[in-house]
Amino acid sequence: MSVRHLQISAAAALLGGCALVTPAAAHVLIQPDPTSAYTLTAGRLWSIVATLLGLTGVVIGGLALARSAGRIGTGRRGAIVALAAGLAGAAIGGLVVAAAEGGPGTGYGIVGGFMALVVGLIGMVLGGLALVRSRHTRLARQPQR
């Protein structure tokens, strides 16, 4: 191996190494600042809103299913409100999960989004059960011909 060939190989390796390192260094330089665990980002805010909507659906659906007299959320109207609140919570939670670009701890609210999906679905199920029960009792109360 000649000295000239060795010099050309060393120069090519040096330039090739710099060409590979430069994009990686630029990628590290433009990374966003890490968010702390206590920072309220937009994703976290929307996942909290979605979870609260789903939780509202669960509470009203449970009350409608239990038919507690004299309380908010009784009967058919409470079942419909529980269905709507559960659907809204699950839909917003799904949007948060779909828009998240990172995993847990990145500030995108993905954990809260999944929790909102689950709580919203539970609210929808309770509202649906209460709605079916209210239809059955309404049909049973009608006079038979």
Give a structural overview.
By secondary structure, the chain is an all-alpha fold. The protein has 2 domains: 1-30; 39-141. 75% of the residues lie in helices and 0% in strands. The protein contains 4 helices and no strands. The longest helix has 32 residues, at 110-141. The termini are far apart. Mean pLDDT is 77; it is low at 25-29.
Q: Tell me about the biggest sheet?
A: none
Tell me the β content.
under 5%
Order of helices and strands: HHHH
- Taken from the alpha-carbon principal axes, the silhouette is elongated
Residue runs with pLDDT of under 50 for 5 or more positions: 25-29
What's the structural domain tally? 2
Output the radius of gyration: 28 Å
What keyword list fits this structure?
mainly alpha, 2 domains, 145 residues, single chain
Q: How would you summarize the topology of this molecule?
A:
Elements: H1 3-29, H2 42-66, H3 75-99, H4 110-141
Helix pairs in contact: 2-3, 2-4, 3-4
Quick rundown:
With 145 residues, the protein is mostly helical. The chain is built from four helices and no strands.
